[in-house]
Amino acid sequence: MTRIRRGYIARRRRTKIRLFASSFRGAHSRLTRTIIQQKIKALFSAYRDRDRHKRNFRCLWVTRINAAIRENAASCSYSTLINNLYKRQLLLNRKILAQLAILNRNCLYLISNDTIK
Amino acid sequence: MASQAASSAFNGNMKKALAGLKRINLDGLRWRVFDAKGQVLGRLASQISTVIQGKDKPTYAPYRDDGDMCIVLNAKDVHVTGKKMTDKFYRWHTGYIGHLKERSLKDQMAKDPTEVIRKAVLRMLPRNKLRDDRDLKLRIFPDSEHPFGDRPLEAYVMPPRRVREMQPRARRAMIRAQKKAEQQEQGGNDKRKGKKREVEAELT
């Protein structure tokens, strides 16, 4: 059989991967074999962290709500606030409560004082 | 001002007290004062660590250091429960084989009482890159004098604490000690042993 060169097939595949890793640091954006490995790791991290993202933010919101609630003299803690909200069937989620804690703290205090009664 | 007179009272520690103040950014921070007199060591350190991390602010973010400056006064008057004064050991290894060194709480308080609280708080902070910067925000003084009198200071009110009931055996021992002290008082007041037991009864 005649000798067949594969031509540009491999190069086309590798430039796509190289484009993906174009903003990585050092050898991770320059060396082909390293780029392939780093792309796999990056995609895996993205997959895993899409769920972690949700957990992390909820954690952050809980901490912020806790801090804001404890500064109020009347209400005690995050746990009591959430319990009271559930008893009153108030469906505010932690994201909104955290935003209230930063931007409109008086509103949050109104809500918590109302639910305590 | 009385604070100026107090600040000139300890010239030796001025450098240590003001060390690294320039490195701390953003003086939108508050200066909170903790009085360690009569506080239990670990419970106080726990509160200090939440303040230093900035976890009592609703704008907390884990990636940046936004905690307030904490000044702790009367570090030599901090309490520990149980027999920790003689039995709690601070241990460290120097790296050489067999050189595990230890020092008891009593010796550490005699040597440098501020280290006790500093170690307690540092060991309660998360071990990340912000830990050293948070260390800079902690200023501990053994007495109630500090050079920061001209800053706007806020006293920190410790949250109310539920002290649990004494365990039955300890309570019986305390009652026995009190009864013995009363008997000693009725007997002779000049014996040394009697005085020691009085002091013990007063402490309990």
UniProtKB/TrEMBL annotation, chain A:
PROSITE patterns given in the database record: RIBOSOMAL_L20 (PS00937)
Xref: InterPro entries: Ribosomal_bL20, RIBOSOMAL_L20_CS, Ribosomal_protein_bL20_C
A Gene Ontology biological process term: translation
UniProt-listed Pfam families: Ribosomal_L20
Domain of life, per lineage: Eukaryota
Keyword Ribosomal protein tagged: yes
Predominant subcellular localization, coarse grouping: plastid
Subcellular location: Plastid, Chloroplast
A GO molecular-function annotation: structural constituent of ribosome
GO cellular component, one term: ribonucleoprotein complex
UniProtKB keywords: Chloroplast, Plastid, Ribonucleoprotein, Ribosomal protein, RNA-binding, rRNA-binding
Role played: Binds directly to 23S ribosomal RNA and is necessary for the in vitro assembly process of the 50S ribosomal subunit. It is not involved in the protein synthesizing functions of that subunit.
Similarity-based family: Belongs to the bacterial ribosomal protein bL20 family.
UniProt-recorded name of the protein: Large ribosomal subunit protein bL20c
Gene: rpl20
From TrEMBL, chain B:
The keyword Ribosomal protein appears for this protein: yes
Keyword vocabulary terms for this entry: Ribonucleoprotein, Ribosomal protein
Gene3D superfamilies: Ribosomal protein L13
Region (Disordered), start-end ranges: 161-204
Pfam family, one: Ribosomal_L13
Keyword Lipid metabolism recorded: no
Record GO biological process: negative regulation of translation; translation
Cellular-component GO terms for this entry: mitochondrial large ribosomal subunit
Compositionally biased tracts (Basic residues): 169-178
Family matches, as InterPro entries: Ribosomal_uL13, Ribosomal_uL13_bac-type, Ribosomal_uL13_sf
MF terms (GO), sorted A to Z: mRNA binding; structural constituent of ribosome
Organism domain of life: Eukaryota
Basic and acidic residues bias (residue ranges): 179-204
Alphabetical list of HAMAP family matching this protein: Ribosomal_uL13
UniProt similarity note: Belongs to the universal ribosomal protein uL13 family.
Protein name, UniProt field: 50S ribosomal protein L13
Organism annotation: Dovyalis caffra
